[in-house]
Every structure is written in structure tokens, then in C-alpha cells.
Amino acid sequence: MRSELSWRPPCDGWVKANSYATVIGCGGFAYSGSVIRNAVGEWIFDFSVLVDELCAALDVLCHAWRLGFRKVELEVDNFSACKILVGDLKALFNSSLVIRIREMLSKPREMHVTHVFCEMNSVVDGLVRMTKGKEIGEWVYSSPPWEVRSMLTADMRSL
């Protein structure tokens, strides 16, 4: 007897692509996974990705390009994401997200990707904390929100 909550196959000649995303652990990292199966349920393809850092990296690279910046230092505080971005970790080589990031990195410009400790990323960490509980969407600020101004000032004083 089939449960209403069990996986259902696609029609003949079709494949079914299922995706899922979740936040795992006390650090709150977002991960996604996907699988493609045929009409008899056979496994065709799957992948899982550390989503949050990679999506954020792609977004900031796209914004920097759109704003006309061609020399960009990208700092990420997740070591695995950094390894993926510099090409040292091949596990996600065929991920469409990683492919899009590589396409951005191959555009004519100078790019440096480095790992930093999260304490060195306090302004962006503050921005992320501000979005918790807000409606899903992209938040763009033309000036620093008051919630991160003290962090920005502290960073500027340390120069």
C-alpha cells in the first residue's frame, strides 16, 4: 500500500528532480541536496552543496561586476567554500552554482579569494543577523544600516 507521503515516480519519458535545503548545526550553515531519478525510481544523478557561502560569493561577485569593479578581493569565512572557489576542492566540480561562480571568476578582471576567520567578517555577519526573521528576499542598502555602523567604524579604526 502506497502512502500519500511517499515518493511518486514521474510519467514515462520524464525524470523527476527533487531538491531540499536545510540549516544544520549550531553555526547555522545552509546545505542543499538534489537527486534526479527516472520513471522506475532509479538514481541518475545527485549532489549536495554548502549553499550559503557559495550563493553569497556568487551574489557579491555579480554585484561587484554590475557596479563596474574589476579588481576584487573576495574573503570567505568558510574554509571548504574557499577551497571550492580557488579550485582546490573538486567535489562540487559539476554543481551549477560552482560553474556559475567559475564563469564569474573567468571574466576579464583581477580576483583574489582568501579564507578569513569569522571574527574578521563582523560587518557582513551583522548584516546576516539583521535578516533573520525578515521576509525572504534580497536586502540592498545604499548606506550602512545603524546595526553595523559600530563594526564598520571599528574595522576602519584598525587600518
Folded structure, characterized:
With 159 residues, the chain is an alpha+beta fold. The chain folds into two domains: 16-49, no CATH class; 52-133, no CATH class. The protein has five helices and five strands, in the order βββαβααβαα. It has helices at residues 51-66, 79-86, 96-105, 122-131, 146-157; strands at 16-24, 29-37, 43-50, 71-76, 110-115. The radius of gyration is 19 Å and the shape is globular. The mean pLDDT is 76.
- The best one-word shape is globular
- CA-CA gap between termini: 67 Å
Per DSSP, what share of the residues sits in E-state strands of 2 or more residues?
A: 15-25%
Number of domains: 2
Structural category? alpha+beta
Q: Strand order across the biggest sheet?
A: 1-2-3
What is the tally of beta strands? 5
Mean pLDDT: 76
What is the N-to-C order of secondary-structure elements (H for helix, E for strand)?
EEEHEHHEHH
| Computed Rg | 19 Å
**Low-pLDDT residue intervals, each spanning 5 or more residues:** none
Largest sheet: 3 strands, antiparallel
Oligomeric state, counting identical vs distinct chains: single chain
Q: What's the helical proportion of residues?
A: 25-40%
- How many individual helices? 5
